[in-house]
């Protein structure tokens, strides 16, 4: 009987202690990245190459998704606004929904799924094949050579990808509202310009995307570096990256929205 009570408590304690330990390890890991960032930024070609793999290679999924999200917003927004005689406000509704919420959040989720998982798998594979250990033997710091360039590439790429998502999304809303439905183009753009504030909407959206970029990239490189050096371990680390990133993005979005808006 006593065992039935203590066994769940032991499991709960083990999970809690492990979570706290990993959180502390991740914090120390972030400090190590920041401490070694100078070396990676001096060799700018490393960071530029990782920006290409993390950012440029994610462009297709970001642009296509942004276009269709904007088109869906245009359709749904027009249907709802027309009931209240406010169809002319479609441009403002599409722009505000994208800039404040959908753009940064959806772009971050797509970035985590595509670039974040790729970073984790690549670093985990390097750990499995002992490439990171070989660098340490040759007096090359793997954090400065491998981790920091990928971290900064993700941090730089994420706001740019979110901005492109927003631009293409607004264009998708324009295609539906003006080209397909027949709203006046001047009204569409003037409503958008009159209701979108540079600091309140655009800058706050970019701050959100920057915070998401830091969180997602840190999770990706940490999970890859901490992965068990087996095929199953790398697979599990990649899964944790996507799942944890999605949860952190949504939680961060709530916190940032509460403070910003």
TrEMBL record:
Localization, UniProt: Cell inner membrane
Family the UniProt entry places it in: Belongs to the MlaE permease family.
Transmembrane segments: 51-73, 171-190, 202-222, 242-260
Organism of origin: Chromobacterium alticapitis
Pfam families per UniProt: MlaE
Name of the protein this chain belongs to: Intermembrane phospholipid transport system permease protein MlaE
Principal cellular location given in the protein's record: membrane
GO cellular component terms attached to this protein's record: ATP-binding cassette (ABC) transporter complex
């Amino acid at each position: 009987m006593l065992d039935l009570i203590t066994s769940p408590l032991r499991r709960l304690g083990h999970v809690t202690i492990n979570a706290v330990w990993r959180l502390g390890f991740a914090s120390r890991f972030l400090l190590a990245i920041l401490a070694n960032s100078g070396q990676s930024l001096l060799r700018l070609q490393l960071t530029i190459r990782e920006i290409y793999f993390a950012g440029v290679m994610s462009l297709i999924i970001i642009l296509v998704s942004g276009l269709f999200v904007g088109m869906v917003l245009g359709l749904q927004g027009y249907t709802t606004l027309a009931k209240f005689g406010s169809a002319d406000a479609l441009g403002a509704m599409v722009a505000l929904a994208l800039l404040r919420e959908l753009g940064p959040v959806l772009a971050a989720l797509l970035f985590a799924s595509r670039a974040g998982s790729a970073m984790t798998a690549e670093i985990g594979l390097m750990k499995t094949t002992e490439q990171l250990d070989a660098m340490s033997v040759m007096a090359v710091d793997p954090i400065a050579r491998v981790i920091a360039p990928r971290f900064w590439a993700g941090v730089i790429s994420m706001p740019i990808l979110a901005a492109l998502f927003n631009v293409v999304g607004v264009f998708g809303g324009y295609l539906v509202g003006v080209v397909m439905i027949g709203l006046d183009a001047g009204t569409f753009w003037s409503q958008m310009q009159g209701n979108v504030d540079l600091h309140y909407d655009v800058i706050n959206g970019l701050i959100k995307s920057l915070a998401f970029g830091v969180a997602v990239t840190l999770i990706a490189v940490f999970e890859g570096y901490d992965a068990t050096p087996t095929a199953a371990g790398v697979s599990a680390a990649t899964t944790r990256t996507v799942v944890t990133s999605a949860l952190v993005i949504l939680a961060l979005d709530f916190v940032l929205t509460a403070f910003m808006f």
